[in-house]
Amino acid sequence: MTTIAQDTTQDTACSSQPGTTPPSRRQLPIAARQPAQVVREFGPFDGASAIHGVTHDGQRVWAATGESLVAFDPASGATTLTLAVICDAGTAFDGTHLYQIAEARIDKIDPATGQILASIPAPGGGNDSGLTWAEGSLWVGQYRDRKIHQIDPATGAVRRTIESDRFVTGVTWVDGELWHGTWEGEESTLRHIEPASGAVLLQLDMPQGVGVSGLESDGAGLLYCGGGGSGKVRAVRRPRAGMAA
Q: Domains in the chain, start-ordered, CATH in brackets?
């Protein structure tokens, strides 16, 4: 369905509470902004009270619910597979394997069986939020630190860092564009940013009270957004280059 319900719970992108962090002194320019166009909602899912990470494997959407990864068909909304793994923040897919933030580590997971094949330390030591795969690297959102780290998927070593002026939730790359979610208080946005400087090229403002925890592109025109404590995943239309209002 497409009716948008208001989220009334606190951000569950990570365990950190925004009230413990002072406002950012950094103010990034925003080149353009417009309302987010939410085109569909999925969930809540059986046994799931929250959505943390979200990823897309080319056919299915995966949602991290805390104690299980739920895969569903975005055409029908039907759940197709559930994996019993710890999944309390971001989720990613590299074309073969899933990667999942679990407490202070990132697990590499067989998507058919749920078997954990390897683990590396998460850069935030438990304060990590979003996760995505691009350019042979994992990209990890740091919620309270307002950063995105590019890390080595084999060792966890940080290769580069991008700074933001908002609490960073989900992260995704699509068509050479870097996007991340933000969530502070009752306000959430989706931001397309310039990777070198962090400057905001386009900001999509979510409806008041609707949060973004996880974030992943379908590789085409949609951005899938975890809805935190609402237990829902929302599909938002991604504006094409040159089409911003």
A: 38-237 (2.130.10.10)
C-alpha 108/C-alpha 97 separation (Å) is 7
Rounded distance between C-alpha atoms, residue 152 and residue 200, angstroms: 25
Report the candidate in 238, 230, 244, 215 with the shortest Cα–Cα distance to residue 62.
215
Token pair 């969930």: residue: 43
14 has a pLDDT exceeding 50: no
Question: What pTM was estimated for this model as a whole?
Answer: 0.89
Type of residue numbered 242: G
The pair of structure tokens assigned to 135 is 């350019």
Q: What is the pLDDT of residue 243?
A: 52
Whether 213 and 51 have beta carbons less than 8 Å apart is answered as yes
Beta strands at 200-205 and 33-35: parallel, antiparallel or unpaired: parallel
